[in-house]
Predict the structure.
Amino acid sequence: MASASTDLLHRERFCAKRTHLITESVIREMSRLATKHNAVNLAQGFPDFAAPQIIKEAAQKAIADDINQYAITWGAKPFRDAIAAKYRRHYNLDFDPEREITVCCGSTEGMIASLLAITNPGDEVIIFEPFYENFGPDTMLCQAERKFVTLHAPDWKFDKAELRKAFSPKTKAIIINSPGNPTGHVLDREQLEYIAELCQEFDAIAITDEIYEHILYDGAKHIPMMSIPGMRDRTLLINSMSKTYAVTGWRVGWVLGAPDLTQSVRKVHDFLTVGAAAPLQAAGVTALGLPDDYYTEVADHYRDRRDRMASMLTKAGFRCSIPKGAYYIMADISGFNRGDDVTFVKDLVERVGIAAVPGSSFFSNPELGKDWVRFCFPKKNETLDEAERRLAKL
Ligand code: GLN
């Protein structure tokens, strides 16, 4: 085992400055703590129930059929065709599989590859906050300057004047995540049109993480930024199989964009990862071809869990912000008078046996998140039953 002094020496001598800026993911750390304390993991957002049988069988068959070597770097042709067909079917958007689609290792790679593909050090990138944790390190690794724009509770809307103020001639991109993690907000057409106007006025690109597109409640509708007039060729649309098909461990995602932008994304992607798992792309053809009923069932399934989670958290003393989409609940802990989010979450995992994510990991300034804790609910009924029993200990 290396000594502490060697560690320090190595950090100073060998570890790049860019790695000093970023810290370990709190979300992933909470998953490890959940295992350590044998806690119910309501931290990292992934389902604990089975993935659809038909998709699993398609993956098994692909391996048995020897689809086991590299796919084309930017994605196997049948999978790119399936992606194009899905966007035509759901949004009437047309993509050229040869020039506008890049398959990558999850939307996590899609986001960093897109940012690396379009930003130069010093370019400004606008991020709504609270934001999904990865957007922080992603932009730091690109040495972009970040401008944060607040989504105001309780309905998590941005203020138009504040957003306009964040744009400048140096703005290269704005990151949009709707339905959003962690707040569950869903941008409506009016908000999207306002962002679109600013992108065009300041000649900026929208990078949209649309991974929760099918997880919507109470009649909320997902509108891809690309379908807003003027935005088709100035948007990079990112999505993945993870959430819609309950296969977060497969790491299969995609980036859609105009040919010149795609060419740049493909170059970065190629040298980062070469490609996503070939047999899982083959199974993706089956997944993306599932009938519309599947998507309705997904939304219904998560709505039941959202309602259940909101009611049990409320009963336990939290003030919940009810999400319109995605599968997280932001819960206000100020009523407990038990310290900040980090202290609260530590006690929750160690004493109560439930892992959650401290709100501060979704804000540029931790102070802004001190009253919030995020719980995720893509879980089996038994898991939620156990969480409910443990919440009584609060
Ligand atoms: N998106 C999920 C979350 O916010 C998981 C992200 C991840 O760990 N890759 O919890």
Residues 23-51+293-391 form a domain with the Aspartate Aminotransferase, domain 1 fold (CATH 3.90.1150.10). Residues 27-28, 44-45, 108, 132, 181 surround glutamine (CB under 6 Å).
